[in-house]
Amino acid sequence: MKRRFNVTGTCNPQWHYMVRLDERVKKIKEDYVDYGSYFVINRGRQYGKTTTLRALTKYLEGDYIVFSLDFQQMGAKTFADETVFCRGFIDRLLAELRKADTDEKVTMREMLSDFKDNNPDVILDGLFAFLSSMCECCERPVILIIDEIDSASNNQVFIDFLAQLRGYYLRREDAPTFYSVILAGVYDIKNLKLKLRSESEHQYNSPWNIAADFKVTMSFSINQIVGMLEEYEADHDTGMNIQEIAEEIYQYTAGYPVLVSLICKYVDEDLSEANAFGSLGSAWTSRGIEEAVRRILYERTPLFESMIRHLDDYPEMKRMFQEILFQGKTFSFNLDVKEISLASMFGYAVNRGGKVQIANRIFETRLYNYFLSENELAGSDSANQMGDAAMRDRSYFVHDGMLDMDIVMRRFVETFADIYGEEDAKFVEKYGRKFFLLYLRPIINGTGNYYIEAQTRDERRTDVIVDYLGEQFIIELKIWRGDEYNVRGERQLSEYLDYYHKNRGYLLSFNFNQKKEVGVKEIQIGDKVIVEAVV
Questions:
Q1: How far is CA 395 from CA 386, 435, 445, 514, in A?
Q2: Are 238 and 284 in contact (CB under 8 A)?
Q3: Residues 83 and 157 reside in one and the same domain
Q4: How far apart are CA 238 and CA 291, in angstroms?
Q5: Per-residue DSSP letter, 93
Q6: 25 assigned to some structural domain
Q7: Same domain for 342 and 491?
Q8: For a tag site, which of 66, 286, 413, 490 has the least CB within 10 Å?
Q9: Is residue 70 one of the residues assigned to a domain?
Q10: Can you give the residue range of the structural domain that contains 510?
């Protein structure tokens, strides 16, 4: 059977190229299920939760009786009242037992059918009393898995169901019940009540403090990506450098599962037929990865649509991201702060060195593009003038298909001086980087990518990397803090060029010194040439 990369729905190793999940499900079993834990797998959209649960269910079936349910399969009417919900829940359990392969499961199916037939008006109390007696009759422990747990979280019946589940689990030594409970969804169970009540009415939820802290890594490692690409290469023989391609994909995605698969899917299915590549071998290169990322950044996907919707729903989270990206502001990673907790739960932000950082390079660039477009639509006339000037001068910047970054820097200095020459220092310090990106974006739009090196972004320094048809440009943006600081910045950029194996780099200084010399000059540092632009 031919396989492909999958970005919609559950992955199946017979149909799709996917990372191996053996070690992950083994760890979940040994560290959580075998201890009888009640835990929640909450990760962002398209993070491989359902695929993991499918693999886990098969892995557990030798030692346990497993009920694996998906609450998305239960319609809204199922949550109308307790009786309707209970009967719907029993139907889902019966569906799991339809292909009963042991006497034990046949007995459970008969018990469930009899209970449903003889209790037409059952409510939650009666349901859980019956489930307890059913579990007691089983020789093996019974595991309950519920996927898409938060799809029903706006229903009080569902919250009451969780309360009963919690109560029976806490009393499982006296009243048999499910040995281990596994819930999966985007929202942490601790946040579910938040969706039922307004902020003013219920700022903090019931603690639900029985859920074990789930620490199994769900993102893909470089080695896992390598394993997936090895399977693909065995089928297609492209000649790709698997290790290098895996590392490059990881640099863009930080292992976010659907983004990894999306890059691979573009390279495999779209780029090999494009004029610029023409074959799989030429597509599975750094140029191919760069082009796949460029296309992803302009594509509408459920993942990005959710991100933008969440920014609208949580304006403080949006403000935090804007200040991180454009002003280099740092925020301590503190999950007690609602916006940080939500950003982490949705998968948009991570904890790096105790600070909030955007989770991966693709998310970061998508956010930059979104915020810059918002600025263009609602910004000042002067902000729009930056983009207009870049579009007007675009023909000056590209020669024989190659980007001339020297001219870009010179024209930016001139344009910035014309538009913002009279602005005060605070204004320039706050918005200068944003205006450079507003100027840069239309120049490379449709052909190249840009991204910001997260580890160098702070209130004083930001490094912008531009990829344009296989050529990279390293541009350091910094706020002027005196001659000594400037010399140190030049040395830092020179060292950074070594890392990227480049001999030419660019330094853009926002200088508030009244005696500054506005313009562009070249500086030689060892074997490196730095084009320094001062505005």
A1: 16, 20, 13, 34
A2: yes
A3: yes
A4: 18
A5: H
A6: yes
A7: no
A8: 286
A9: yes
A10: 396-534
